[in-house]
Amino acid sequence: MATTLGFHIILACLGIAFPTIVLLAEYVGLRRRDETALVLARRWSQVMGVLVAVGAVTGTVLSFEMGLLWPGLMRQYGAVLGFPFGVEGVFFFLEAIFTAIYLYGWRRLSGWAHWWSGVPIALSGIFGAMSVIAVNSWMNQPGGFTQSGGRITSVNAWQVYFNHAASYEMPHMILAAYMVSGFTVAAVYAVGILRGRRDRYHYAGFALGFVPAAILTPFQIFVGDTAARAIASDQPVKFASMEYVAQTSRHVPEWLGGVYVNGRIYGGVKIPYLDSLLVGFGPGTQVTGWDTVPPADRPPVVWLLHLCFDVMVGLGFLLLLAGLWALIVWWRRHRLPRPRLFWWLGAVSGLAAIVAMECGWVVTEVGRQPWVVYQLQTTAEAATTNGGVLTSLSLILVLYAVLGTATIVILRMLARRWRRAEVSEAEVPYGPAAGPLNQVGS
Amino acid sequence: MAADTVGGILLAAVTLYAVLGGADFGAGLWDLLAGGDRRGRAPRQLIDTAITPVWEANHVWLVFILVIFWTAFPQAFAAVMNAAALPLWLALAGIVLRGSGFAFRKEVHRLDVQRILGATFAFSSLVTPFFMGTVIGAIATGGIPADASHAILSAWTSPTALLAGFLFVGACGYLAAVYLVGEAARDGNRRLAAYFARRAQAAGVMAGALSLAALAELHTSNRFLFDRLTGRALPLVVAAGVCGVAVVVLLATPLTASRRWEGTIRAIAALGVAAVVWGLGVAQYPVLLPGTSVTLGNAGAPHATLVALVVLFVVVLLLIGPSFGLLFALAGRRLLRADESAPLGASLGAGAAAPSTRRGPGSAGRQPPILRAAAFTLAVAVALLRRRQNH
Description:
The complex is a heterodimer of chains A (442) and B (391).
Chain A: H1 5-32, H2 35-69, H3 71-104, H4 111-140, E1 145-148, E2 151-155, H5 157-161, H6 166-194, H7 200-234, H8 236-243, E3 254-256, E4 259-261, E5 264-266, E6 269-271, H9 274-280, H10 302-333, H11 340-366, E7 371-373, E8 377-378, H12 379-382, H13 389-420
Antiparallel strand pairs in A: 1-2, 3-6, 4-5, 7-8
Helix pairs in contact in A: 1-2, 1-4, 1-6, 2-3, 2-13, 3-4, 4-6, 6-7, 6-11, 7-8, 7-10, 10-11
Chain B: H1 2-32, H2 41-51, H3 55-72, H4 74-83, H5 85-107, H6 111-140, H7 153-156, H8 159-186, H9 190-221, H10 223-229, H11 234-251, H12 259-284, H13 296-299, H14 303-332, H15 349-353, H16 367-390
Helix pairs in contact in B: 1-2, 1-3, 1-6, 1-8, 1-12, 1-14, 3-4, 3-14, 5-6, 6-8, 8-9, 8-12, 9-10, 9-11, 10-12, 11-12, 11-16, 12-16
C-alpha cells in the first residue's frame, strides 16, 4: 500500500532541491554575466513550472489519501500528526506563491529582484520537507503526546515535530533530495555530452547539477551511517532485518548481498565482525536480532529490506567515487575528466540517486512493518475498511503512470525544442543587449 | 472556546478557497464553453493569462483545509472520508487531471494535443466542484453518520446533495465570469468585458435559482437546518441574495468596463459567496456533522493541538497574507506573464506601491473596493432587515 508514495517522493525531491539549482545557475549567470548560465536557469525554470504543477496535484492526492486510505490512522492520531502537516501547509503556500512570481517574473522584475523572489522557494522547500519528514520520523519514534483509554489527551506539538528520529531522518532525506536533483540534472547533460554535444552549454548544465550533489555525497554517507547506528538502538528489529541478524549475539558478520530463505543466506559475501564493528566500533558489540520479538511483529520480507539497504549504500559509494574522480582531475588539471567512462557514470548518476533514495524509503517503510506507528498501531488497524481498496489503488497507480509518462514526454519535448532553436540573444533573460523575448507561449 | 476558534478558522479557509480557488474552476467552465478554436481564442487567452500565475497558490487552500480538518476534528474527518469516499475520489481525479492538463497545455505547441489537454482541463474543472458540492451537501443534510466506516451512496445522491453539486458549479462559473469581466476591463478590452458580463449574469441567475431550490429542498429534507437558515443565519442569507442581485444589476450598467468599478463588483460577488459559506456555518453551529451529536466541542482534538492550529493560522495570516498580496498585485499589474516581452528593470518593492501611469488603480486600490463593497452590502442588508422587523 505504501507504494503510492513512490512517485510523489521523486517529485518531492525535485520540488525541494531543484529550485536551489535553478537559483544557483541564475546566481552564476548574474554574478559573472554568464549568458549560458542564464539561459540554463531560464529553461530550467520552465521545467520547474511543469514539475511544480504536477507536484501540487500529487501533493493534494496525498492529503486526500491520508483520509481515504488511512482513516484509522487519522482517527486515532490525526490530532498529533496534524501539526507538522499544518506547518508544511504554510511552506506549501509560500512555495506556490513565490514559484508563480519567479516563473512568470522573468525579465519583468530586475535581475536581482527576480533572483530574490526565488529564495523563498528554496527555503520553503527545505522547511516543508522538514515538516513532512517530521511526520514520518514521528511514525518511527512516536512521542510528544499522552493517551488514555484509546483517546489522545494531550499533545506537545514541539516534541511531536522534533521527535527522536527527526534528528537523523531530516538531514538524511533533505540531502537525498539535493543529491537526486543534482545528479538528475547532471545526468541529462552527461547523456548529451556522450552523444557528442560537447559545448559549453552542456558542460555548464552538467557542472551546475553535479558539483553541489557531489559535494553533499560524503556528508550524506556520514549522516546515513549515523542514522543506521541510531536505528540499531531505536528500532532493533528493523536493523536486524537490514543486516540479517537472526539472533541477538556478539561478533556479528556483515552480509553483502545474499537472499535469506528459511534461515539460510544464499549468494552473499560474508565479512566477519564488520556489523558489530559498524554498530559499536568493536567486534564484541552485541547486536539485537529479530528473535527478540514474536514472528508476527517482524517485517514481512527480510531479503527485500536487506537488498534495498545494500543497494542504497552501494550506490552512495558509487556516487562518491564519481565525485572523487572529478575532484582529483579538477585538482590536477583544472578541467572535468575526459574518459567516456566518467560520462557514462555521470549519465547513470541520476538514476542511481533515484534508485538509492527509493531503496532507502523501502527500508524505512517496510522495515517498520507490521507497525504504521511504531509499537502503537499496526498497518491493518490504520487502513481503510472500505471495499474496493485494490480498485482505487490500481486506479491511482494508472493515474500516476499516465501522469509520469506525460511529464517525461513534455520535458523531452521541451528539450527537443530547445535543441532545435539556437541560443539567440533574445533568450538571455538579463544578458547584455537583450532584445524582445521570443518565448513561445500558448 | 479553542474548538470554536478553529471551527471559525476552518470556515475562513473554506471561504478563501471558495472565493479564490472556486473562480479558477469556474474559469475552466468558461474555457469549456468558449466554442471552437477561432471563436474561443480571445476568451481562452484571457482565462489563461488570468489564472496561470495564481491557480497553484489558490489551490493550496484546499490542502490547508484538509489538514486543519483532520488535525482539529480527526473523528469527523475519518467519518466524512469513509462515507463520501466515492465523490471524493472523483473530485480528486478531477483535481489531478485539471492541474496537469492546464500545465501541460501551455508547453505543447501542436494544436490537436493542445485541444485534448485543454478539454481535459476544462471538463475536469466542471466535474471537481460538482463532486465537492455533493460532499458538502451530504454533510449539510445529515447524510454522514458519526461512526461511518463504509462508503454510503445515498449520502451524496440525495436531491439536496445533487443540488449542492450543481450550485457549486454555478457559483464557480459566476465568480469566474465576474472576475474575468474585471480582467478584461483592466486590459481595456470592452468586447471581452461585455462577453463575460453576459455570462456572469446568466450564471448569477442560475446560481441564485439553485440556491433557492436547495433551500426549498432543505425545507423537507432537513427542517432543522432550514429553520436555522431562515432564523439566526437570515442576515447572511439575505446578504448573499443582495450581493448576487447587486452584481447582476451592476453588470448591466456601463460601470462594467470601468476600471474604477471592476474591483468593487468583484468584491461584492466574493462577499456574496462568502455570505453563503458563513450562512451555512452559522446555521450549523455548533454541530459539526448535522444529524449526529458530533459538535465542535466534543469532536475537537486536545486543547494543545487546537491552540497550535490557532497559532499556525496567525502565522499564515502574517506570512502568507502579504505574500498573496504581492502575488495578486504583480499579477494584477500584468507583471507576471509567460509570453510577450516586457521592459527590464520593473522593480519589485517600489513598483507595487507607486502609481503606474498605464494601469489604473493597481494594488494600492485593492483595499478600498473590498471595504466599499462591504459597507454597501451591510447597508442594504440592515435596511432590509429593519423593514422586515417593522412589519
